[in-house]
């Protein structure tokens, strides 16, 4: 899946196309919804394999409903620009919108760009709103009301080298963070040219993957009262652990500006034993054309910390209805179809991980994924947390603040002191945003 995470563009393992702009109008045979809305639904989608799959299936939807769907397909930057212009102006030109819940969802919801879907999700028992995983739904809910339906998900899992574990006499991948630390140190000591562990190190880029460490230590970016909590005891322990894992068992002369492409390259070149990363990128590690160790890569659930294994389980993309749309009844018909079990299963069979529990329980829905990755994902969906960064309006700025202690810990500075400094800055940021 593609996602622009504050300057880091993610090129998915699932073959996302280059950013292009296309408008597709697919015809149908007349009809209407009987609710007074237009028989044409205007849908704005991002460049993504999910979008390509939906476009191929649209004739079926149009035939079933007698509606016409006009798709505007945009690159992520262009998508954001269009939303900024049209939604700010209260335009009704968009009915259905594909958006990133954790990047712009809070802004959209607070500004009332997204329609409240409470009534719609209860309207069709067969569609089964309860089938959606809790973590992704947490991210598409605002002030207790669903404002989006997740369509693509990801979780953080542990990538590892089977051959290096065998050589080190380790019978299974680590189940806890302490076991991970010990195994990484053992392998690095025995293999001077191989890092025991690699992960993102960039101040902003690392925040999302660090989040699973933070939750597994029992912390979060804010506390139950909405106050900054990146200097809690749990957070300080998590910062110190993550930093030391890379400092002590990471690559030699490790830089502090690595995003996923750089960290993945180290792993796929055979230069690291363990790597924690989003499952959505797994084909980069298992494709022989991209990975020198493709036949030796294994997957495991995120290791448990003092609070258990609590990786993120998030929706990278969701569908919502523009609150300014004058065609909400038909817009919901499209979303209901596009997020139904049949379409979710078809998407997942093509490699796009969805948010429906029933599809993950269906052998057809998991046949295209490695068995150990499916098991890791299943574990993640049970205990996962529905956000992988601070849930704020200005996400990019927040990541810079809460990511600084990571860089300090990796470079051997006092992680606790860095966390205290970051917490003061983050609280000021939160206070400013609340004004």
From TrEMBL:
Belongs to the bacterial solute-binding protein 1 family. Gene3D superfamilies: Periplasmic binding protein-like II. The keyword Transcription regulation does not apply. It comes from the Bacteria. PANTHER family: ABC TRANSPORTER PERIPLASMIC-BINDING PROTEIN YCJN-RELATED, ARABINOSE-BINDING PROTEIN-RELATED. Pfam families: SBP_bac_1. Keywords: Signal, Sugar transport, Transport. This is Multiple sugar transport system substrate-binding protein. It comes from Nonomuraea jiangxiensis.
């Amino acid at each position: 899946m593609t996602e622009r995470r504050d300057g880091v563009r993610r090129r998915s393992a699932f073959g996302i196309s280059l950013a292009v702009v296309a408008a597709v109008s697919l015809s149908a045979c007349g009809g209407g919804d009987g609710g007074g809305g237009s028989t044409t639904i205007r849908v704005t989608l991002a460049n993504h394999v999910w979008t390509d799959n939906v476009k191929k299936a649209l004739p079926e939807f149009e035939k079933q409903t007698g509606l016409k769907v006009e798709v505007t397909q945009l690159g992520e930057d262009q998508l954001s620009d269009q939303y900024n212009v049209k939604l700010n102006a209260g335009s009704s030109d968009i009915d259905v919108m594909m958006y990133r819940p954790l990047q712009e969802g809070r802004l959209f919801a607070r500004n009332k760009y997204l329609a409240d879907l409470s009534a719609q999700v209860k309207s069709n028992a067969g569609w089964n709103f309860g089938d959606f995983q809790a973590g992704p739904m947490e991210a598409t809910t605002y002030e207790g009301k669903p404002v989006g339906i997740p369509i693509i998900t990801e979780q953080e899992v542990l990538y590892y080298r089977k051959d290096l574990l065998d050589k080190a006499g380790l019978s299974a991948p680590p189940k806890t963070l302490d076991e991970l630390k010990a195994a990484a140190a053992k392998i690095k000591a025995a293999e001077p040219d191989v890092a025991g562990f690699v992960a993102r190190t960039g101040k902003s880029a690392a925040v999302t993957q660090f989040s699973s460490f933070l939750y597994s230590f029992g912390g979060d970016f804010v506390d139950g009262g909405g106050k900054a909590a990146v200097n809690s005891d749990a957070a300080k322990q998590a910062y110190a652990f993550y930093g030391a894992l890379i400092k002590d068992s990471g690559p030699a002369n490790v830089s502090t500006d690595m995003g996923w492409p750089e960290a993945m390259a180290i792993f796929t070149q055979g230069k690291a034993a363990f790597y924690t990363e989003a499952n959505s990128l797994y084909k980069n590690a298992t494709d022989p054309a991209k990975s020198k160790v493709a036949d030796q890569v294994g997957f495991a659930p995120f290791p448990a910390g003092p609070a258990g294994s609590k990786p993120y389980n998030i929706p990278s993309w969701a569908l919502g209805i523009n609150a300014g749309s004058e065609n909400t009844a038909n817009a919901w018909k499209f979303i209901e179809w596009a997020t139904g079990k049949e379409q979710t299963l078809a998407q997942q069979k093509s490699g796009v991980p969805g948010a429906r529990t029933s599809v993950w329980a269906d052998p057809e829905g998991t046949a295209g994924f490695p068995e150990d990755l499916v098991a890791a994902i299943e574990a993640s969906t049970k205990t996962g947390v529905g956000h992988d960064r601070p849930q704020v309006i200005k996400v990019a700025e927040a990541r810079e603040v809460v990511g600084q202690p990571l860089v300090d810990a990796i470079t051997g500075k006092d992680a606790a002191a860095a966390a205290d400094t970051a917490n003061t800055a983050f609280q000021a940021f939160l206070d400013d945003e609340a004004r």
